[in-house]
Amino acid sequence: MRTPVVDAAAVAAGVRVDLDALVEQRRAGERLPLRTARVRARDSGILASPFKGRGMEFEESRPYQPGDDLRSLDWRVTARTGKPFTKVFREERERPVLLCVDYRRSMHFATRGAFKSVIAARAAAALAWSALAHGDRLGGLVYSETDHRELRPARGQIPVLRLLGELVAHPAWSQAGAGPPEDPLVRPPLVRLRRVARPGSLIFIFSDFRDLDPGSSSEEALVRIAGHSEIVLFMIHDPLERELPRPDLYRVRDARSTALLDTRSRAQVEAHAARFTAHVAQLDALCARHHMHLIRCATDGDWRAALERGLGRRLPAERRKIA
Q1: N or C: more exposed end of the chain, with fewer CB within 10 A?
Q2: pTM
Q3: Which residues of the chain, if any, have pLDDT below 50?
C-alpha cells in the first residue's frame, strides 16, 4: 500500500494524520501497560498463563514427582542436594490485540483540539507499538461508511507499520462528509469484528459510539465478543456534544449543508446535555453488565493520559470508568 503525502498544515491543525506522527507514538506506546483483568480463554491465554507446564520462561525447581518428564530434571540442584529436582516452566502464549478504529463521518469532527478520527489514530498507533513491545500479535479493523480494512493478527513490526499505513491512507480522509450514507443492509463493523476476534483477544474500539443503541445488532455483537475476549471502549467526544455554547444563534456547516444552531432556548440546551449524559450512562451500564472497560477522552483532552489512567486501573475484579 502506498502511503499518501499529507499536508503538514492539516496535520498541525489536528484534522489529519501522517505516518511520521504515528511512528512518533512508539515511545509513548512502549510505556503503556497491557495488563488484563482476567483470562477468558485458556486455549489462547493472555500474557503468561496461570498454569504451569513446558514453556519458554523458567518458573522454579521443585522435588521430583512420579510422572515428571526426565528431560526437565534440574541436574545442578539435584547434584547439590542429593535429591532429584525438576524444572518447572511457566508457559507463555501469544495474545491477539485488535485495534478497531471508526472513521465514519461523525469522527471527522471537532470544535476544539483535534478531530475525533485523529485522536483515534494517534491512540491506536500508541497501542500498536505497545503490543509490539509486549510480544503480542497485532490485528485491526479500520472502517468507514463505505470501506472496511481488515488486518489479521500477526507478530512483529510489519503488522504495526501495515496498520499505521491503513490509518493514514484510508479513503475516509478524502471522503469525510461527502460520501454516501451507510447502507443499512451492510453488516455493521462490530458484526464484522466477530469474524476477526478470537477467544482470549484484547480488543480496543475507538469511536464516539453514536450508533451503539440498546438492542441493536452492534450491541449484540459486542456482547457476544465480550463473552470470550476483553474489550476496551475508547469513547471520543467533542466538548460541544457535552454542552452547547453560550446563548446565541450560530451558523454551522459540513461538506453537505449549512444550518443554524439556536442555543437561546434553555430547554433545548438542557435536552442536548441530557442526551449526552444518557449516552454515556448507556455505555457505562453496558460495560458494567458485560465486564468491559470504558475510557473517555475529549477532542481537546490528553489522550495519552486517558490511556495511561485507563490501562493502569484495569485491575482484577474491577471495572473503572475514566472520564
Answers
A1: N
A2: 0.78
A3: 36-56, 90-92, 183-186, 314-323
